[in-house]
Amino acid sequence: xxxxxxxxxxxxxxxxxxxxxxxxxxxxxxxxxxxxxxxxxxxxxxxxxxxxxxxxxxxxxxxxxxxxxxxxxxxxxxxxxxxxxxxxxxxxxxxxxxxxxxxxxxxxxxxxxxxxxxxxxxxxxxxxxxxxxxxxxxxxxxxxxxxxxxxxxxxxxxxxxxxxxxxxxxxxxxxxxxxxxxxxxxxxxxxxxxxxxxxxxxxxxxxxxxxxxxxxxxxxxxxxxxxxxxxx
Length: 232
Description:
Blueprint (H helix, E strand, L loop, with lengths): L17 E5 L3 E6 L17 H8 L4 E2 L8 E7 L2 H12 L4 E9 L6 E5 L2 E3 L7 E3 L8 E13 L5 E11 L6 H9 L25 E9 L6 E5 L5
Parallel strand pairs: 4-11
Antiparallel strand pairs: 1-2, 2-4, 3-4, 5-10, 5-11, 6-9, 7-8, 9-10, 11-12
């Protein structure tokens, strides 16, 4: 059996966490790109969403995570009972998550569904892989918002497609690997081809943002529709 060795050291993140909403039970935040959701085992990876927020909200816990490079909406439970109630909504897939992404190239179809099982392979860590045999079911919907060209300093035109992603499952790296499987990796994605095409190596970050989160308030039962505009 392969042993997973994580050598990643996160560079310092100077961007603040924006608190978009809070009550006595939960908080909604805008996570900056370049910040871990949870502190790593390596002491150099102490800074994280949880590490920062527990100073403000003692006893708070993460209900879900966003990748290091992904920005956007996260819901934070302010006590254990709320965490359990929210985790139940996530496990029952009653939470709707919508992401905005910039994909390399121009997608042919205006919308579609990516149905491709995702597997862990310790030998490839931290990469995940598409595998219909050992993978867990993974399904993502996408809809094109716009196709455009971004002009680079040397006058080169980089074709990009802005999409709205709706994951129906919540696998690790799901949108990143599904975009790559589609043949149009997310711009700035270091693991799945988003820095491979000419001009993409200059991308300042992973162009993936959690822009909407829909769930039910665990105490009042009221529907919560959180939105956070994409920074790119």
